[in-house]
Amino acid sequence: MTVQIENVTAGYGKVTILKDISIKIPSGQICALLGPNGSGKTTLMRCINALLKPCHGQILIAGQNIAQMSRSRIARAVGVVPQSSQTAFPFSVIEMVLMGGVSRFKTWSAPGAQDKRKARLVCAEAGIGHLADKSYHELSGGQQQLVMLARALFQETPVLLLDEPTSHLDFYNQHKMMNLVRDTIKRKNATALITLHDPNLVMSYCDSAALLKEGRLIASGPVKTVLTDTNLQTAFGDNIQIDITSRGMYVVVPKQPDYRPAKEPTACAEL
Ligand SMILES: Nc1ncnc2c1ncn2[C@@H]1O[C@H](COP(=O)(O)OP(=O)(O)OP(=O)(O)O)[C@@H](O)[C@H]1O
Question: What is the pTM of this model?
Fold first, then answer.
């Protein structure tokens, strides 16, 4: 399903955060959302998931305006992996994953044996099969992120929104998660928008990228056209550049590893 973000302006109360954002993500593609802290990435995710209503513009999923879709229809179309998720009740991992299927289950009916088998399979794919019967509360931050990914994969939606899904993961699991996401999107011809802070993960796994700064879109399109020295420096400042390793890989690195930004006077400094 194609996701179209058309001229979206949105914010909280009277404060405008996103200004005139337009991005198109075709089926079968992963688009990375990049930008400094506070640039509006999560706010855009909230708009696509219809948790926040834009004050201008529209969001279309498979050509349909989400403003006209019911909550359950959106749940069947859009799966979300949030930055972090807590629950008030001591659910097990498998129960958390099964909750991803709620929009598919018949009203008041419990998940069947086939659903449970499938949920365990998805847990195994995400590398958390051995944790399936543990309490979600007792897991580490990274293990909880893998559970949230398994839940979104179990939900089997044609659109996936992933908000910094790798932030708590070790190096191996970051790549495992990105491989799994890429594999799923390509196999199911689904569509993903993924917030990432590491441009190198964007280069390795994403088809396109959208670069935000202070709520405005600096660039969007194929990864190679967006991740350029000029665009990265506009977004993140001077001390960033693209380099080529001895094996011919493009990597994003600091220009000077020992670089120190100029000190700004702070209230504490005056004390
Ligand atoms: N619920 C809210 N109410 C008011 N302002 C908010 C709310 N959530 C976020 N903001 C503000 O909106 C701006 C963008 O925040 P957002 O979380 O979208 O940024 P982000 O790019 O996802 O940041 P990060 O990379 O740090 O996660 C920030 O200035 C933030 O303070």
Answer: 0.89
